[in-house]
Design a protein that fits this description.
The complex is a heterodimer of chains A (308) and B (282). Chain A has 308 residues and is mainly alpha-helical. Chain A contains 14 helices and no strands. In chain A, helix 3 crosses helix 14. Chain A starts with 5 loop residues before the first helix and ends with a helix. By secondary structure, chain B is mainly α. Chain B has a domain of 153 residues: MetI-like fold (Orthogonal Bundle). Chain B is built from 14 helices and no strands. The two termini of chain B are 35 Å apart. Classes of the chains: A mainly alpha (308), B mainly alpha (282). The interface between A and B is large, with 103 and 98 residues. Chain B: It is found in: Cell membrane. Chain B: Keywords: Cell membrane, Membrane, Transmembrane, Transmembrane helix, Transport. Chain B: This is ABC transporter permease.
Chain lengths: 308, 282
């Protein structure tokens, strides 16, 4: 590691005496400027994750010191719970919907709205709006939309003369209802990522393809989309990491119910670990989530994002 | 300008499809939002028979009751305190760290930076139970700081990355010249780096603010007293109390998302900038 002081880089003309104070200055900055961030990060992010691993070995309700060491039993209990596998399956469903519906929708809209025409900017802002709303507010808005007595869906049903369903109260439909809200809330975020990428694209490449006789569709297929690959890979990354950690949206809609049918891993963690203060058990769920997220992130970075 | 551009484009048969497609998506996005705002102006009876249309009689009372109740303002005040604390502490600690990583060469610099950057990958939910115990042991449970400090810690990774990249673009020669003239690093940071970095500070500040303003899980775990609840917790309690009086709940939702929407309209430039700047690095 190069340890050149800035003064010596500045040139031979720099007076010898200045070298000392300049190093002192750096030292002062080091001991004053770094510790607050590093301390906060270590104390409130890194240590708790380590502690989660430690606590997961205990049968502990969070009071006193953990003493009842049970090894890996908490992990066994989690993996033996049917509701955990349901939650894991739901996270999988969220990922599938994000990748198969949300991202293509976002990309299509981005291709339309990256062009300049009257109303394009207004539409971008409109589509981005749900992303800015809090998950809690979004969830509550849609629990009204889905409400079997007063909701929008119910009134559509009634106009066809049918008895309105209570979508959020049925194990068959609750998760589907949640998935629709997820698309509503997050497609605008990915659309914005794509628009930003499209706007920084080198347009001469597309023009060159068009001059060489490529149709619009061909230019899109063979020039624009390949140029977007880095952003698409990033968008897929965000979608998956976000899907794995989804929580706030589920709480106002279903709280993970009915009968655990719409739990995600985090709402499962909340309902079992935090509500009932089963610290060891909850920590085991947290560690499983951690392993899934980090394994995914590193694998994905290695396989798909090597060049970035 | 833009209309002149569109005028020059010859008729494209795909255009009607585009317009139809955009209209469908716009309806999909708008209807729930509009129904919420308008629903707050209806009586419960009307909401049931007429959930889509304009209210036949505008019930301003729904909104007035909430605005004069004090409860609404208390929630906003709590949210504002927590978010301001979070943003202030994040900007101070992150900018100092980012400055060090950008301009001071020292042994282990890149290692420490990767250590911080790892924070981008960690799911907050994993840490939340131990965090609760730590915050309790520090005596910060049921305080604004008990929520703000973990939020700062979790926003540091992204903030430091964004700020460092920007600080690095401030010409090194400027720092050199200042040092030769007897200026200290700290003075340079205070009087040159920070003033030059207003755009990126605004971006990082806005993103941190929005995240903190909307946050649910951490406040849920750290706060037990209703009087301290930020609005996402407060609105869940309100919904629980008025469970099927949807006209009141909708008015309450509208009033709580209003500040968010105003903030978005004021700061959309910074929000979108943060989004795309953060996206480059992931």
């Amino acid at each position: 590691m190069a340890m050149t002081s800035p003064i010596s880089v500045a040139g031979k003309a720099a007076p010898q005496a200045l070298r000392g104070p300049s190093w002192d200055g750096r030292f002062t900055v080091l001991i004053l400027f770094l510790p607050p961030a590093l301390l906060l990060f270590t104390l409130f992010v890194v240590l708790p994750i380590g502690e989660a691993a430690w606590y997961s070995g205990f049968n502990w309700n969070g009071f006193g010191r953990p003493s009842n060491w049970i090894g890996f039993d908490n992990y066994r209990f989690v993996l033996e719970t049917r509701a955990f596998w349901l939650a894991l399956r739901n996270n999988g469903l969220i990922i599938v919907v994000s990748l198969a519906i949300q991202l293509p929708l976002a990309l299509t809209l981005a291709l339309m709205l990256a062009e300049r025409f009257r109303g394009a900017v207004a539409l971008r802002m409109l589509f981005f709006m749900p992303y800015i709303l809090a998950e809690i507010a979004t969830g509550l808005i849609f629990s009204f939309v889905y409400d079997g007595d007063y909701g929008l869906v119910a009134s559509i049903w009634r106009t066809f003369g049918a008895e309105p369903p209570h979508l959020l109260a049925s194990t068959d439909t609750a998760m589907l209802a949640v998935l629709i809200v997820i698309v509503w809330k997050y497609f605008g975020f990915h659309m914005m990522l794509f628009i930003a990428a499209l706007q920084s694209l080198d347009k001469s490449l597309v023009e060159a393809a068009r001059i060489d006789g490529a149709t619009r569709a061909q230019a899109l297929r063979h020039v624009v989309i390949p140029l977007l690959y880095p952003t698409i890979r990033l968008s897929v990354f965000f979608a998956i990491v976000g899907s794995l950690q989804l929580f706030d949206l589920v709480m106002p809609l279903t709280r993970g119910g009915p009968a655990d049918s719409s739990n995600t891993m985090v709402s499962f963690l909340y309902n079992n670990g935090i509500s009932r203060m089963r610290v060891g058990y909850g920590s085991a769920i947290g560690v499983i989530l951690f392993v899934i997220c980090v394994t995914f992130a590193f694998t994905y970075k290695r396989w798909f994002m090597r060049d970035e | 300008m833009s209309s002149a551009e569109t005028n020059r484009v010859p008729f494209d048969p795909a255009v009607p499809f585009k317009v139809a497609f955009l209209a469908v998506v716009a309806v999909f996005v708008l209807v729930p939002l509009l129904a919420t705002v308008l629903g707050g102006f209806k009586s419960l009876g009307e909401l049931r028979v007429n959930p889509f249309g304009l209210p036949s009689h505008w019930e301003w009372q729904n909104y007035a009751d909430i605005l004069f109740s004090g409860r609404y303002w208390q929630l906003l005040r709590n949210s504002l305190i927590i978010s301001t604390l979070t943003v202030t502490l994040t900007l101070i600690t992150a900018s100092m760290a980012a400055f060090t990583f950008a301009h001071v060469k020292f042994f282990g610099s890149s290692m420490l930076l990767s250590y911080l950057t790892l924070g981008l990958l960690f799911p907050a939910a994993t840490a939340v139970l131990p965090l609760f115990i730590k915050v309790r042991d520090l005596g910060l449970l049921d305080t604004y700081f008990g929520v703000a400090l973990p939020q700062v810690a979790f926003s540091l990774a992204m903030s430091v990355l964004l700020l460092r990249r920007f600080f690095k673009d401030i010409p090194y020669e400027l720092l050199e010249a200042a040092l030769v003239d007897g200026c200290s690093y700290i003075k340079f940071f205070r009087y040159v780096t920070l003033p030059l970095s207003r755009p990126i500070l605004a971006t990082v500040g806005t993103i941190t603010f929005v995240n903190s303003w909307n946050a649910y899980l951490l406040p849920l775990v750290m706060l037990n007293t209703d009087a301290l609840y930020p609005w996402p917790l407060g609105i869940m309690v309100y919904q629980g109390e008025y469970s099927s009086e949807w006209h009141l709940i909708l008015a309450f939702i509208t009033l709580t998302i209003l500040p968010t929407i105003i903030l978005f309209l004021l700061a959309q430039k910074h929000i979108v900038a943060g989004l795309t700047a953060g996206a480059v690095k992931g």
